[in-house]
Structure formats: structure tokens, C-alpha cells
# Entry
Amino acid sequence: MNTSLRRALLSSFRRRCFSNFVLPGDQSAFDALTKQDGKVILYYTASWCPPCKTISPIYEKLSKSYSGITFAKIDVDALPGAADFANIRSVPTFQFRNGGDKVAEFSGADAGRLEQQIKQLNDA
# Structure
């Protein structure tokens, strides 16, 4: 990733204590994520969603084990344009991207499937 893009991304993201977990702060930060050249997982969620509350800590824990993948958490109510762009119809939904292209997607709070898809993306 070039330096100016990295700087723009960092200014628009809120990062957790681990560097590969990001919360896009606005639509432009989300747009940059979808164009990122590396491996990215987009987790679409909502604060009112019980299954999202169940899978969220699992997603965050898995992010600590895969430093080569960017893990993003997108609140569909805070960034409705992101949900529209990705054609999200239910939450939680996970999209797996490699080199800017979507390579997999699933909806639901299935921890086993989430881990399987992360491993596949990691090995790609």
C-alpha cells in the first residue's frame, strides 16, 4: 500500500489495541478498505443485533491470530452507504476480499464457518 493511501486510511480509522483491526470512521475510509490491495475481512454488524453481539468477540479474538489480514467492523446504521455498496440484507454478514476482489461471503453468527473462511483467505 502506498504511503499516502496508508496515511489517509489511518486518519479515518479508529484502531483497536491490535493494528490489523479497524473501524472505518466514515464512508471514504470504507471505500479505501474495499480498494485495499491486501487481504481484508469486512464484518457488517449493528448494535441492536443479538447474533452480532455473540460473534463480535470471536471475530476480534480471531483477528489477533492473523496479522496478515485486515479485519474491519462496519456498523450498517452508522455507514448505510457501506451496506448499500455491499448489498447487505442481513447482519451479521462477513465479506472476504483479496486484492480488492470479493472472494467469499456468508451471513450468520457461525463461528466455525468464520474461522474456516479466515483460514482459506489466509492461505490464498
